[in-house]
């Protein structure tokens, strides 16, 4: 209460906290079960305002949303439920803002100069996506993507664009494993990645594991354009729940696609679409035989086929490698958990990168 005007204090919430506050304020704990309703909320043009007061309950009369929204001069389409003894008497909410979602956009371009070698040419960061660049090793520019949102859930949208210009060499990884959390509704989290590799350039796309949580919904796409005489290495590890924590994916939705082209001609196309009880599907012998982690590795290089024999000697029994053409080899890995998956992947990465694996993969 203001001391001078003797009027209640209005608390103004910024746009960033509007959605969570609107949901919280209508809970019985906030309103006060067993007491007369004493909280009302009004939506201003820019912000959400709290008005704290008691509504009278005259004999044989109950306050209605029209009555108490009128006291605040609020639109009648926006009102909160009135509670008495923990029971909602009115639920006329017809317009509520959606829950705040994370957005992130990252664009990185690598160039090459004879005097400087591979270097960062352009960088653009938006929202929850950031990139840091550790000290280069083996003449490669290294980029580490950071998701400051801490993970991905339903409705989040992230996009990444990486370009390796002529003769540039860049390796891209992530700071940690990306976590795909339970989605509150039907909206899926979206991750879109676009990679471009110019002539005589090299790009290694080596993110750390993507971990799926029960109830998650994910739509992810990776589109790569590789020029002739360019080199490209891709690794996508995927973990179906944390086995050490006893997590099972009983209800999930996953749509994942990878497309690699050269001058518009397809070199590789892969798509995964899984819905429902993923734990049951992964338990089938012909699917994963209870494996909880998998990875796909693709190498595009003029000398790719020559590496095939050496790679096969390093593969465990639950992995395989094939040559799609003279310049494209593909490997698949299955493992009981993410720790075993890393143990199978690292020797292959050391071989294919000439021991230039990003530092984050060595931790």
Radius of gyration: 27 Å
Could you say how many structural domains there are in total? 2
Q: Give the beta-strand count.
A: 22
Largest sheet: 10 strands, mixed
SSE-based structural type: mainly beta
CA-based shape: globular
Low-confidence region ranges: 31-96
The ordered string of helix (H) and strand (E) elements is: EHHEEHEEEEEEEEEEEEEEEEHEHEEH
- Helix count, per DSSP? 6
How big a fraction of the residues is strand? 35-45%
Descriptive overview:
It is a single chain. The chain has helices at 15-25, 28-31, 65-71, 278-282, 308-314, 338-352, and strands at residues 11-13, 39-43, 48-52, 82-84, 87-90, 103-113, 117-127, 129-132, 141-147, 157-164, 169-174, 178-180, 189-197, 202-205, 210-212, 217-226, 231-240, 252-262, 265-276, 293-300, 319-325, 328-335. Mean pLDDT is 81; it is low at 31-96. Strand 6 (103-113) and strand 7 form a beta hairpin. The protein is built from 6 helices and 22 strands. It has 2 domains: 11-90, no CATH class; 103-362, no CATH class. The chain is mainly β. Helices cover 13% and strands 42% of the residues. The strands form 4 sheets. Strands 8, 9, 11, 12, 14, 15, 17, 20, 21 and 22 form a 10-stranded mixed beta sheet that branches. Strands 7-6-10-13-16-18-19 form a 7-stranded mixed beta sheet, with no helix packed on it.
């Amino acid at each position: 209460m203001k001391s001078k005007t003797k009027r209640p204090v209005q608390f103004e919430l910024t746009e960033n906290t509007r959605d969570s506050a609107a949901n919280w304020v209508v809970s019985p704990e906030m309103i006060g079960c067993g007491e007369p309703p004493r909280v009302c909320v009004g939506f201003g043009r820019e912000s959400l305002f709290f008005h704290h007061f008691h509504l009278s309950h005259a004999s044989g009369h109950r306050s209605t949303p029209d009555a108490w929204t009128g006291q605040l001069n609020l639109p009648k389409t926006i009102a909160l439920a009135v509670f008495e003894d923990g029971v909602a008497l009115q639920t006329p909410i017809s317009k509520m803002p959606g829950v705040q979602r994370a957005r992130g956009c990252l664009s990185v371009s690598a160039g090459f100069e004879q005097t400087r070698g591979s270097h960062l040419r352009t960088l653009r960061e938006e929202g929850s996506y950031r990139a840091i660049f550790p000290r280069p090793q083996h003449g490669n520019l290294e980029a580490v993507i950071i998701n400051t949102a801490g993970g991905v859930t339903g409705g989040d949208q992230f996009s990444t664009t990486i370009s390796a210009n002529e003769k540039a060499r860049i390796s891209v990884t992530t700071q940690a494993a990306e976590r795909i959390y339970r989605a509150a509704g039907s909206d899926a989290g979206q991750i879109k990645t676009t990679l471009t590799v110019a002539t005589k350039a090299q790009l290694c796309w080596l993110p750390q594991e993507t971990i799926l949580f029960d109830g998650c919904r994910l739509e992810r796409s990776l589109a790569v354009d590789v020029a002739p005489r360019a080199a490209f290495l891709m690794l996508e590890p995927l973990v179906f729940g944390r086995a050490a924590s006893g997590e099972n994916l009983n209800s999930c939705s996953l749509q994942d696609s990878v497309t690699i082209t050269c001058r518009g001609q397809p070199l590789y196309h892969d798509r995964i679409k899984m819905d429902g009880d993923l734990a049951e599907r992964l338990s089938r012998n012909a699917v994963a035989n209870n494996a909880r982690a998998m990875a796909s590795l693709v190498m595009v290089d003029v000398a790719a086929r020559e590496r095939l024999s050496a790679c096969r000697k390093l593969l465990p029994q639950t992995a395989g490698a094939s040559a799609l053409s003279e310049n494209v080899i593909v490997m698949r890995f299955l493992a009981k958990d993410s720790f075993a998956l890393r143990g199978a992947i690292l020797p292959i990465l050391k071989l294919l990168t000439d021991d230039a694996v990003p530092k984050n993969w060595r931790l």
